[in-house]
Structures are given as C-alpha cells and as structure tokens.
TrEMBL record:
Domain of life: Bacteria
PANTHER family, A to Z: ATP-GRASP ENZYME FSQD, FUMIPYRROLE BIOSYNTHESIS PROTEIN C
GO MF terms held by the record: ATP binding; ligase activity; metal ion binding
PROSITE patterns per UniProt: ATP_GRASP
Claim: Nucleotide-binding is one of the keywords in the record: yes
Domain named ATP-grasp: residues: 114-308
Annotated protein name in UniProt: ATP-binding biosynthetic protein
A Pfam family it matches: ATP-grasp_4
Keywords: ATP-binding, Ligase, Nucleotide-binding
Length: 409
C-alpha cells in the first residue's frame, strides 16, 4: 500500500471551531503539527509534532526546518489568519507549494489590499490610512459620514466600528487603535467609506490561477456600531452565487493568489458587490463545515491538496443548506445559566450540533469592552433543504436555548 502524503499544519486552532479541519485533512493525509502547546485532542489525527513559540517568526521557521529534517514533507498549511505570512515564509524556505510571502502580507494588510483592488478595477471602498486622531478626523471629512474605522491588520471584526457623527470619531479611533496596537504586522488604522448593504462572503478555491466560487455565505451581524458576526447560512442553490462570483474571483486575482482556499468578504450596495477583504484561508465560525453540509465539498481537504501541489476535487455531492448561530448573553456578566430544551434537542434531527464554549461562572463581555472571544457562550448548527428553511429553523431552535448572565456586583 503506497504511503500517504505528509502535510505540516501550522497551528491547528481550537478543537471546537477548527477540529473539523484537522479531522478532515487527516482522513487523507498524514499530519505533523507545528504548535504552541502540547497536543491533546489533536493526537488521533497526527503522526508527529514540534512545540514552538508561534508568535516568533524565527522560531516557526526553525521549528519547521527541524520537522522537515525528520519528515519528508509534501506541503505546509495553516487555516489560522495570524500565521499566513509565517506559513508562506516556511513553505518558500522548504521549496514547497505556497503563495508568496508578499502575497500573504497583502492579504493580511487591508490597506495594501485596497490599493491592489483599485489598481485592478475591483469594486471596493474608499480608504485612508491614518496614524493619528487628527488624520482620522480629516479622513472622515473627506470621505463623509457614516464611515468605518478599523485596524489595518487584524481579524474577526475586532476593533471595527461605524461612525455616524463627528463627535464619535475620537472614541472610535481609540477603539480601533487599541486592537491595531496588538498587531505584529501593521499598527495603523483605516478610515473607510461605509458600504451600506447586506454582508456576505464567497468561499473560493484557486488552483493554478483559476478561481472557483464554491458557495456564498449570508452573514448576520450584531447590533451597530460594531460588526460582530453572529451567524451564517449557506445554501447550495443560492442564486446570489453567480452574481457575486466574478467580483470575488477578481479580488483573489488582484492580490496575486494562485493557489489555496479563500474566504472573500463583500457587501451588496444597491445590489452590487463591493469588496471588504480577502482572507487567504478557510473561513472561521465553522463556515467550511457549513459548506460541506450544504454541498458536500470538503474545503479543508481542498486546502491540503493545494498545499501539496495537487488538484482538488470540487465536485458537489449534495444540494442542501446549513446555518450556524452564535449564542450571546443579553448583557455582559457572569454566566449563570446555559441549557437547551433536551426533549426538543432529542427529537429534532435537523439540529445537527450545539456546542458550549464557556462554562458556568465565566465572565462574558460584549462589545465595546469585549469581542467575539469574550462574548460568545456557544453556537448551534442546523440543516435544511433551503436557506429560508434553515433561517426559520435557526429561529425555532434559538427559542429553545437559554443563556443567562448576572451583572458583576
């Protein structure tokens, strides 16, 4: 029996949100990990690992070289936003397939991406890079209000805020700057034109410069002025896919991506797609899992194939819909209650999963003081025949779930 190809995965992420990626990749590949902590849940899916400081680019490079000396690697991959540049740098050093370091940096930096979108005629948002409050105030006068203020190089909608009035600029700039200061790549802040319309993402797969739009994800956001994503739905038969696919694939091309999986975020303004950003990895919030439930296409496996220089199988094997909803408390505080109606859960086959990510007694903090990592108590996933049916089922299931907090005294 021929040996299976060997893949190095940098930072597997947490079991709850990224465990499915490692499990699906390990079904076809032998996997070694470069990780910042001793493996636990990952052990059934790996054949080896090395511990490094993932925040130290030199340590990642050295750790990867050491693993390559012990294993005959076919590829290197990450699905974590924070490690895209380090992964590209390691792949180049090991002469393995990957996007270039320069392309990875462009994907990580929203200011650079905006410049490339404009150069290649991809519809996007007007954007001004700022370092000071005075520059931000000047930018809002130039662009007009409402505007969006955000870190140039962060992720997860952290530090992103809408500004509607001039007197809000100071606090919004401070809010965005706090997150921007945590970036190891670019600490500047962007002031951008507000794109008024529904937010979506297009899940793309690119092989040898040819991008295929696999699915469109319709997003649900929390209350303004923040942009926290509270849920997603994927419908294999969504007619919006053919409408937005050209803009999404043009954005991938503009950034110079030739291979990989991309999570391309857009807004529909007067029905027309306008680019927010291109994430050069599988979407978070279980979106890759939703795509598989809806279409049968395995995005983690596709990402592994491309990382090893292989053509991915993008043949749909089902036509259905799936959705996820994040569970938040109404107010920040100590989590005192979290449960689902058990008879409902036991007799509802379309409720595919419910996961708690916080324990009783944990402190949940909503924006502006918190973010997605501190605010969410858990999530649940449902399936259905259509996107409309999934949305209805998300509402039905939500009514059977309780999340209660008690304010700090």
């Amino acid at each position: 029996m021929p040996a299976r190809p060997l893949l190095l995965v940098i930072s597997p992420g947490d079991e709850i949100s990224r465990g499915y990626c490692l499990e699906q990749v390990a079904a076809a590949y032998d996997v070694v990990l470069l990780t910042g902590r001793e493996p636990s849940w990952e052990k059934p899916f790996i054949v080896g690992h090395a511990l490094v400081d993932l925040g130290d680019p030199a340590a990642v490079l050295a750790g990867g070289r050491a693993l390559a000396a012990r294993h005959d690697l076919d590829g290197v991959l990450t699905w974590e936003e924070w490690h895209l540049v380090a992964t590209a740098r390691l792949a180049r050093a090991l002469h393995l397939p990957s996007m270039s370091v320069e392309v990875a940096r462009a994907c990580r930096n929203k200011a650079v991406a905006r410049t490339l979108f404009a150069r290649h005629g991809v519809p996007s948002a007007a954007s001004v890079r700022t370092r000071t409050l005075q520059e931000a105030e000047s930018a809002t006068r130039t662009l007009g209000l409402p505007a969006v203020i955000k870190p140039a190089a962060f992720a997860g909608s952290i530090g992103v805020i809408r500004v509607d009035r001039p007197e809000e600029v100071r606090s919004a700039f401070e809010f965005a700057s706090t997150s921007a200061s945590r970036s190891r790549e670019d600490t500047s802040v962007l002031v951008e034109e507000y794109l008024d319309g529904p937010e979506i993402s297009v899940e793309c797969v690119t092989h040898r410069g040819m991008s295929t739009a696999i699915a469109v994800t319709r997003k649900h956001l929390g209350p303004a002025p923040y942009f926290d994503e509270t849920g997603h739905t994927v419908d294999a038969a969504d007619p919006l896919l053919s409408h937005v696919a050209p803009a999404a694939t043009a954005a991938v091309k503009a950034l110079g991506i030739t291979d990989g999986v991309q999570h391309v975020e857009l807004r529909l303004v007067n029905g027309r797609p306008r680019l927010i950003e291109v994430n050069a990895r599988i979407g978070g919030d279980m979106i890759g899992h939703l795509v598989r439930l809806a279409t049968g296409i395995d995005l983690p496996k596709a990402a592994a194939d491309l990382a090893c220089g292989r053509a991915p199988d993008l043949t749909p094997t089902r036509s259905a819909a799936a959705g996820i909803r994040m569970l938040y408390p109404h107010t920040s505080g100590i989590l005192t209650e979290r449960h689902i109606n058990q008879p409902f859960a036991a007799h509802t086959p379309w409720l595919r999963q419910i996961r708690w990510i916080r324990e009783i007694g944990d402190h949940l903090v909503l924006p502006p003081d918190g973010d997605l990592y501190t605010a969410r108590a858990g999530f649940f996933i449902v399936t259905g025949r259509t996107g409309a049916e999934v949305t209805e089922r998300l509402d039905v299931a939500s009514a059977e779930i309780t999340v209660t907090t008690r304010a700090n005294r």
